[in-house]
Amino acid sequence: MISMHFGYSRDSAEDIKIAIEKRKLSIRSKVKSVIPCDALLLNPIAPINATFDVVGSSLMLDCAEGSTYKQRLKNASALVKSGGFFVQFSNGPGCCNWKCGSVFFKVVDPQTPEDNAIALDEAGFNILQTANFELPPFFCQDGIFDCKDMFLTVCRKRY
């Protein structure tokens, strides 16, 4: 369950919320910068031309309208150095929307884990590890997600 990734032995809603806040603080202290990007562009961070050791995507490739999922993934791949890592959180099956703050995002191009694996391969990635996370009930009850799980995929870009 989620608790094993946040260092807690119980899965109560309060424990998970506390663990998430601690993890946020830890991550924020290590991130050097956040660069705005547009997954619909061949170079998502134009006009900057750069590649990175690690690129992460949390649900945004699922929700960007205007191109195919495979194309958005290829665009994201252009940001990853050869041998670099791509870390992706994606929606589980049956997810139609999710909420961040007061904004709802619609999943425009739902992917199965198998579809995602094919798209990652075509974008030049080798999958190193995948995990399926069952979401705590309060995520669904609070209207944050309309699905019951998420997927984490860690990949390495081929040389």
Automatic annotation (TrEMBL):
Q: Which residues cross the membrane?
A: none
Ordered alphabetically, the record's keywords are: Methyltransferase, S-adenosyl-L-methionine, Transferase
Query: Per the UniProt entry, what are the Gene Ontology biological process annotations, in alphabetical order?
Result: methylation
User: Which Gene Ontology molecular-function terms are recorded?
Assistant: N-methyltransferase activity
Keyword check for Amino-acid biosynthesis, yes or no: no
Q: Could you give one GO CC term from the UniProt record?
A: cytosol
Xref: PANTHER family = NICOTINAMIDE N-METHYLTRANSFERASE, NNMT/PNMT/TEMT FAMILY MEMBER
Would you identify the family this protein belongs to, as annotated? Belongs to the class I-like SAM-binding methyltransferase superfamily. NNMT/PNMT/TEMT family.
Q: What is this protein called?
A: Uncharacterized protein
